[in-house]
Model the fold of this input.
Amino acid sequence: DEKIETLPDPFKMVEKELEPFSDSIKELVSTDQPILSMAAKHFFEKRHGKRFRPTIIQLMSKAVAACEPESMGGDDRWDHAGASKVDVEGGVVTTKNHKGSDVWRKQAQLGQIVEMIHVASLIHDDVLDEADTRRGGEAVHKLYSNKVAVLAGDYLLARASVLLARLENTAVVQIMATALESLVAGEIMQLKSSPEELLQMQSYLRKSYYKTASLICYACRSTALLGGHAYGSTVATACEEFGFHMGLAFQIQDDILDFTAAADIMGKPTLADMSLGLSTAPILYAAQEFPHLQPLVKRRFKEKGDKQTALEALYRSKTAMDKARRLAKFHAQKAVDSLLRLPQSEARDALLRLTYVVITRKK
Ligand code: FPP
Ligand code: FPP
Ligand code: MG
Ligand code: MG
Done:
């Protein structure tokens, strides 16, 4: 823990770059339809959101700029047009001209695209989950209506697609379009899991990958591609694996907080997953310890008293919550291992620290 403190602060490192973020994203989603504009802009205020994703992408951009494509990319040496120049001075890798370059601008744009996709999915998610609060305020469908919320989400997605095309990188368009597909797949999986699947840790993790980790995982690979690294390069793969494990650690922690945090701190409803009929890591571990929970999980806590019974078992269990924490930690460690395959840089070390923040966050 003390060692973590000595690593660079991830949020401070990108503070300046993210400064114009809210204003420029609001400009990007402007339309001449006032209601649509208002609904679409709603979540892009500065006070809103932790901005984990744009922070990760900014740091990843810096970290991949510090990688020498030739030495890491194997056979892909013709593929990195546009990669920034790298200097090795006394063993320390420094990047030249990354900030202000075309590559940098496109990566920053990717950060905005990802946040727009994320917000679109949250607006739709709150309709599906009938959740009334988000980011400490009213959900878009409460402020306006379900119809406006559906359209505002669609609109953001449309804007994100236009911006994605403007990156003029077909591989990145393809990867990010696949990420969208995964988000929907994750939601439908959650909606339609069979009783058996509801009990399986494997299904829970697969669903979590689709609905949460995929977006950041594909965005990390895209950041490497925009940075001039080839599709199959060691760098691009390390980035993607980092995103995969970081995303899973993030979702598992989110599911733990659903039980342990207060709604006013989270800025969204808590104890919500069981009400939606969903069993996440803590309950799945509790059901392994107390088999009488298994039928409750399978019937999505539909009968009266089911939620209470499950909750009591979870709090009685001495191991369930701990096992869930250990699972989050396992994926955080894997994320760290992936990062360590990139050469040392300030940005990489800030990402190491961010990984720790994700599993220790309280909101
Ligand atoms: C709320 O995000 C949304 C979720 C908990 C599910 C979706 C999560 C992701 C797509 C996470 C991607 C992965 C990483 C590693 C950050 P949030 O709690 O970030 O909400 P906020 O944007 O309102 O802070
Ligand atoms: C939050 O999960 C929701 C998601 C991570 C994804 C939602 C995806 C869709 C609704 C598919 C549509 C996609 C697009 C791009 C419009 P959660 O409900 O577990 O988290 P919460 O506690 O933050 O609500
Ligand atoms: Mg939800
Ligand atoms: Mg949901």
Notes: Strands lie at 86-89, 92-95, 133-134, 137-138. The pocket of magnesium ion (ligand 4) is lined by residues 125, 128-129 (CB under 6 Å). Residues 70-94 have pLDDT under 50 and may be disordered. The longest helix spans residues 102-128.
